[in-house]
Design goal:
A hairpin with a 5-residue loop joins β6 and β7. The protein has no helices and 13 strands. The protein has a four-stranded antiparallel beta sheet, with no helix packed on it. The chain has two domains: 40 residues, no CATH class; 81 residues, SH3 type barrels, CATH 2.30.30. By secondary structure, the chain is mostly beta strands.
């Protein structure tokens, strides 16, 4: 079993690719029914890593997912999950903040003010309209 979970979006076919994995050296492969490994490369594919977090339904949250976050004492907001090189972590952008915030505090149950309800509404590929993009 891999230490990391990934999913792969095919930008030409506009669909998820099954049976793909990222090798230890960082290359993306698809495993054919015959067991053959096919190297996938180029801008055609978008690889998204799991955050390691689960939403309210127990569904794994990936980079590129669009979340609705109901945060105690604040209005709910919708934001895609993105990787931030600057913060070295997964981020969301609350509308009142106008800047990226690390996602993990929304899952911190140690402090009552951080109790949130987080739900995956879709993703940036299949549901861009949820974050102002065109479908």
């Amino acid at each position: 079993m891999s230490r990391f979970s990934f999913r792969v979006w095919d930008n030409e076919l506009n669909q998820w690719r099954d049976s793909c994995f990222v090798s230890d050296d960082g290359f993306l492969y698809k495993i054919e029914n015959t067991g053959a490994r096919i190297l996938l490369s180029g801008a055609r594919y978008t690889v998204e890593q799991s955050t390691g977090l689960l939403d309210i339904s127990g569904k794994e949250i990936f980079e590129g997912d669009i979340l609705q976050i109901k945060y105690k004492h604040n209005e709910p907001f919708i934001s895609p999950v993105m990787w931030s090189d600057q913060l070295a972590g997964y981020v969301v952008t609350p509308p009142k903040e106008k800047h990226e915030c690390m996602i993990w505090p929304y899952f911190d149950k140690r402090e009552p003010e951080y109790i949130s309800v987080i739900e995956i509404l879709g993703n940036i590929h299949e549901n861009p309209e949820l974050v102002g993009g065109a479908k």
